[in-house]
Amino acid sequence: MPRSVNAVASRARRKKVIKLAKGYFGRRKNVWTVAKNAVQKAMQYAYRGRKEKKRSFRALWIMRINAGAREHGLSYSQFMGALKTNNIELNRKVLADLAMNHPEAFKAIVDQVK
């Protein structure tokens, strides 16, 4: 019985990886084994980066809220604790935006929790 290889599927699989490697430098863009490893590593970095982005944005929001709260004589932890006790359910993203772009609205929230 003759040897059967599915060349159509193999080529399609390789083309998909080579397409993902578009824009890479040197052999990483057109040599199958090098491109496969480069794309696999890039996918790992992308997966990890999506998780890290959430962490870094949360840290940024906390810094902005802390800066806004300290202008009104509260620390970040005191301010967040006061929000919880007064049942004000605004997330950090919204609070950071208010502290940064709408200081009068942020001051109203601080006055409400003091």
TrEMBL record:
Pfam annotation, one family: Ribosomal_L20
Any one GO MF term held by the record is: rRNA binding
Which Gene Ontology cellular-component terms appear in the entry? Answer: ribonucleoprotein complex; ribosome
Q: Does the keyword rRNA-binding apply?
A: yes
* Keyword Repeat applies: no
Keywords associated with the record: Ribonucleoprotein, Ribosomal protein, RNA-binding, rRNA-binding
Coiled-coil zones = none
Q: Which GO terms describe its biological process?
A: ribosomal large subunit assembly; translation
Entries under Gene3D superfamilies matching the protein: 6.10.160.10, Ribosomal protein L20
- Matching NCBIfam families: rplT_bact
Q: What does this protein do?
A: Binds directly to 23S ribosomal RNA and is necessary for the in vitro assembly process of the 50S ribosomal subunit. It is not involved in the protein synthesizing functions of that subunit.
Which family does the record assign? Belongs to the bacterial ribosomal protein bL20 family.
The name this protein carries in UniProt is: Large ribosomal subunit protein bL20
Q: Which organism is it from?
A: Kaistella antarctica
